[in-house]
């Protein structure tokens, strides 16, 4: 699959005493550049989080932001001090055995006992595990969005490549006639200037000029580049750099085609090719 370098994902989960939120934001970059904004208690996780992200993102500027927000007191989970509860139950049983008439403790009495009820807090290991899991979930969402956007970019590029192929296929059969017509015109001009077009020297010059406007080789290379472009996009994966190189090759052939153009039609084809190549290049800049 093709991935865009741009994307955004946000995931949050509620823990017993806090709310943990993760934001991942990715934008274009020539290389992979990962930055973090972590709360102090999670700083030790940066290396592990970096490895997690690097395993699934190959190119782009990626920011990972993690926030921890304490829950209001009424939303926090409570925990019973089981050790204290067992000790209190043992003491109550001992008292009732010694004083049968003593009133038994009820649930309210137990809950009001100092230290019996406390807030459930996570250890640093538990908090770190929750953070890693949340980042992984956010990364799933980020890559899903990047994949959807990458598919759109790939389709735009393929549409432009199809139009390029139409232009190349349309002009290629006309090249021999264009070369012949150019030679005929050159011969006529030489004759008008009082020179003999059939002279060996003149004939060599005509052949040389004709070869300079022959763009069959350029058109063949453009055809091969379009074929390679489709192959690269079908293969998928991190193909951005390969596509960058192909855009340079496309542009080189289109420039040569334009410089060799001997008639209006081939000039127009060269111009339209360059427009299409520039449109593709803009999309390629967003591909991982």
Layout of helices and strands:
Layout: E1 7-14, E2 18-27, E3 32-37, H1 46-54, E4 60-70, E5 78-80, H2 82-98, H3 107-111, E6 117-119, H4 124-171, H5 175-192, H6 200-212, H7 216-235, H8 240-260, H9 264-284
Parallel strand pairs: 3-4
Antiparallel strand pairs: 1-2, 2-4, 5-6
Q: Explain this structure to me?
A:
This protein is of the alpha+beta class. The chain has three domains: 7-73 and 122-146, Ribosomal Protein S5, domain 2, CATH 3.30.230; 78-119; 148-284, no CATH class. The chain is built from nine helices and six strands, in the order βββαββααβαααααα. The chain has helices at 46-54, 82-98, 107-111, 124-171, 175-192, 200-212, 216-235, 240-260, 264-284; strands spanning 7-14, 18-27, 32-37, 60-70, 78-80, 117-119. The strands form two sheets. It has a four-stranded mixed sheet with strand order 1-2-4-3, with helices on one face. The mean pLDDT is 84.
What's a concise summary of this model?
This protein is an alpha+beta fold and 288 residues long. It contains nine helices and six strands; from the N terminus they run βββαββααβαααααα. The strands form two sheets. It has a four-stranded mixed beta sheet with strand order 1-2-4-3, with helices on one face.
Instruction: Tell how many strands the DSSP assignment holds.
Output: 6
What is the radius of gyration computed over CA atoms, rounded to a whole number of angstroms? Answer: 37 Å
Largest sheet: 4 strands, mixed
**Broad structural category:** alpha+beta
Please give the count of helices: 9
Shape label: rod-shaped
Which regions have little confidence, pLDDT < 50, spanning 5+ residues?
none
Determine the mean pLDDT: 84
Number of domains: 3
Order of strands across the widest beta sheet?
A: 1-2-4-3
Share of β-strand residues? 5-15%
Helical percent range? 55-70%
Q: What is the H/E order?
A: EEEHEEHHEHHHHHH
Q: Tell me the distance between the termini.
A: 11 Å
